[in-house]
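User: Fold this, then the next.

Assistant: Folding the first:
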Amino acid sequence: MKILKIAAVVVAVIVVGVVAVLMTFNVDQYKGMIEEQAKVATGRNVTIGDIDLAVSLTPAIVLTDVKLANAPWGSRPEMVILPRVEVHTQLIPLLFGTINLTELTAENPDILLEIDKQGRGNWVFDVASEGSSTPLNVSGVSVNGLKLGYRDAQAGRSADVTAKAIAVNIDGALQDMNISSVAAKTAEAVFKNGQATGKLAVGAFEMKAKGKIADLGITSLNVADTTLNYKSAGAPLDLVVSGLSIAEDGKVNFAGKMSGENVTANGTLAPIAVLVAMNKAFPAKLEMTGYGLTASSDLTVEMVKGRPFAKGTIAIPELDVAKFGGAAPAKSDGRMFSAEPLPWDGLNAVDADVTLKIGKMTNASGVEFADISIPVKANRGRMTAAPVTLAVAGGTVSADVGLNASDKTMTLKVQGKGFSAEGLAKTFKKGDVITQGPIDMALDVRGTGNSMRDVMASLDGSLIAGMGESRIRNDALSVPGAGVILQVLNMANPFANKDPYTVARCGVANFQIADGIAQSNQSVVLVTDKMSITSTGQIDLRNERLDLNVRTQGASGVAGGLNQLAQAVKVTGSLSSPSVGVDQAGVVKGVAGLGSALAKGGGSGLGGIGALFGIGSKSGTGTAQAAPADDLCARARAYRKG
């Protein structure tokens, strides 16, 4: 016991002696030496305003107006500005050559991180890094009033971050960065990536970790009262996070609002360290609710050649589009096709091989689509969805969609089978205006542009459709609100006011599209038991204008000798507001050329449907031959069956 008392007295004398020395020690006289050593360590000028020392068993060193010079090419002279830094250290370990920092506090630091156009970062110093042999243990780091800027001249990105308070707890030496927790309050980040801009405001953030921060030993994450506002070429994103937690085993719980709609997500991802590092594949099995729907994902996510890649399925049992909120519609300029930029940049965000399955979808007009399957493959800005399949109105649609962000090209091929005019009329709420009328169609188009308006203005391809025998109720043709097709049929049909029904034996439509102009040269045809109706003209998709002439010719043997034009009709105006009227300058024309224009569509790549609806050219002459009405309808029936 006597030895312990003597030891205690010795330690006390030493501590008192050290304190006495420190109290008379003028640290400010060593400021120049410290600045010089800092320059040797960083290769840049370091300046310190003042150095003060507060003596206790945990002495505090206070540095004011500390500045670290920026890279020579930087946008401002200083990379780091520290108005005040206070460091507390334990006194006794200093006697044994160990530096234990109990607290390091930085007040209002202003840090700028930059990348120049050559890809150089201003945090890369032109000196060789050498590790310190002196143990430097830090218990905690506090930052108040942080201001952090980020500028990437090479990628065109920037961000500005502010935080009212950040607290970091560290286990062990500072060099090891064994962070056990990070907490932040009232933090905000404003960022820009090209044309996309965003703002992130964090109310509370807490992260638990173990091991070196470089090893991403993060065990849990909790975020609350956080908002994200993001705007790109597509629809803006407004996200409010009420609570987000990711546990050590990857369990996820999320609750918040997206564009004002309540959204939840629960399930399994991966440990937070794996999510941050993306160093191995992990599952994304989630159950999600929001916007009046439920959805589930069964995905695998991994990094492939430096890019995130997702593979698997997303299932939505039922989707009602009308329940979606979304952004307010853009101000209309009277055009049908929008001039808003398409989100081409979004194709570069992620690569995928994902199939979206929707059991039933109801659009805003109440039309139901069923058994929807959308297999999407995305790879470095290129996306294909093939085949997209769905059922509607008793028929099926199969489509191949292609998107290419590099040249902003869109391709679309569609095949429609098993439809009927009767089924379509009822599905789209047009009543019982028509019965039967089996329909098949094929569309093959390609366009390029920054907006949908641009794409339609550059469109090339073809649209071909055929309809079998049907009965059209004549008293429904002239009712108010009747569509353009019904209005045209009413005006062009001399029997519309005489017979209760028009018996349509077949119908064919063939539009060849080039540079945004869809041409019809007597290739829109309706053959009835008493007449043939043909249309010639164009649909200008560039200017969204219509210019179509409709002519009628009576079939041979029709009572009254009707073998010439009963009415000439003209369809003009805009696509959004077409006008149907009598063509006073119309002349009587036969249908000897019926089908001749259809023959030109045979090479469209749509299975030769154009050739099926028109007789091909004579051998060696190149002259298209007329297709009699009976032959035309027979070929239409053969195509639908085949």
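Now the next one, as you asked:
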Amino acid sequence: MIRNVLHRKQILLFLCLITSMALAQITRQPYQQIVTPNSITIRWDTQTSEVGTVHYGASVTSLTSTQSESSARTKHEITIVGLSPKQKYYYSVAGTTGGAFDQYFVTAPPTGSAQSTRIWVVSDFGQSNSTSDDTRRLQTVGFWKAFNNNDVHADVLLSLGDQSEEDTEAQLQANYFNQLQDVLKCTPLFTIAGNHEDTDGEVNYKADFTLPTRAEAGGSPSGTEDYYSFNFANIHFVALTVENNVSISGAQKTWLQNDLANNKSDWLIAYMHRPMHSAGYHPTDGDATALAQKANWLPLLEGAGVDLILSGHNHVYERSYLLDNLTGNSASITSANKIDTALGRIGIDHAYQKEPGRPHQGEIFISCQGGGTANDPKYLTVPLSFTPIVFKQSNNEGSLVIDVSGSNRMDVKFICDQPHLITLSHVWDSLTIIKAPKVSSVVGDRTLLPSDFSITNYPNPFNPSTKISYTLPQRGSVRISIYDLLGRTVATLVDGEQEKGTHTVDWSGKDERGNNLVSGMYIARLRAGEFIKNTKMLLLR
């Protein structure tokens, strides 16, 4: 009897030793990458080369399904397929007994479905390799957790570049994965390279992150991890880059144009490392890269109805109001670019309004910060009154939370690691975008409808000129602008107050400087207050 008891204890001790050895060999805890309604990619590192296996199941104590690699390696990557949409699965990379309640993945909802989706955004998170900054990184995670009802899980995590200082494995582990591991083991991560990943030509960056190149999660295949797109529910995400000698124009621009042309999602979010509009540590006025980004990407994004353009790099939090077609420096801004200059806060002024499925309704530019890279105001080279920035915060860390509620509402909040001096809240900035037909003006006793406004032209096609006619049901501010098919403003014909009734204006197919435009399709846009109507015109030379 005693011998049997000892025998069982020896077996138990042996099993514990084997499990302990397996756990000891894991040098990077599991983290999640490409997620779809039916699949997810799990990655982790081990000290020695071995064949990795993911055990998973609907219960933490019943990890009955497995997926294994075909060969031994130290950097493990397994894509689990055949899953059900919007389902929670527990998993382990350390055997069937390695499950834990805080280690799980949730598959994406059906593509295109209107869901409640929460996105967490960080940038420059691991840039500084100073261990003193690790405390601030952990604070960023901690305040995200507190805001998220004591939970670190998000539907999607976006990391906007500079995941390390010099793109070394040691820095990535010490200053990025270690601080984010509780989030990464239950949240799918999508990254973009920053300038600090270029230290070694993105070698370690591309070895450590798996990004969709073949439209695995929707969008259009890019064939490269430098830039890509993916869908989650009814949101389309586009990641763009200027790093690693990737051309802003050329193949990337062509891919972006094709990707956006095929997008049918309710919401569009673009993200990149370097900002288009910034008064932070890396100001954009006069910056050739920022100007090139705006010239090549912005018309395409705005023509597709982009809602948010996210970036990092400048070490401060900055946020614009609702803008359209500001492709130059801040000094070039005109009333035509200012779709809505309010704060976009319900209860303080109003939510930003956009019409669903319409181009050039305006977008919000946000530069995010977090992870030991915030700069004191004394390092800022541009005044805080930089236009079109309406909210700025410089010396504290933070992260961004984006909540999409179905097809008609998006809420964005900046969560700071310090309480606001006046409100005492860690939510320093917030905005709301509402998508609905714009119906608010009233004439007599009835509400105006978009159908009360009209714009047409004759002849069409035309050469050399056409007469544009438009009807206004009330007196108000009116702007008639001409756009090309890339969304660029080529001429403004009317900009001022006009009486109600039918008006006409001639256009001779010339731009603002009087130059003849080439043959092709152009769009005349009537903006009367908050109402917008378009008509297509074909110029034949």
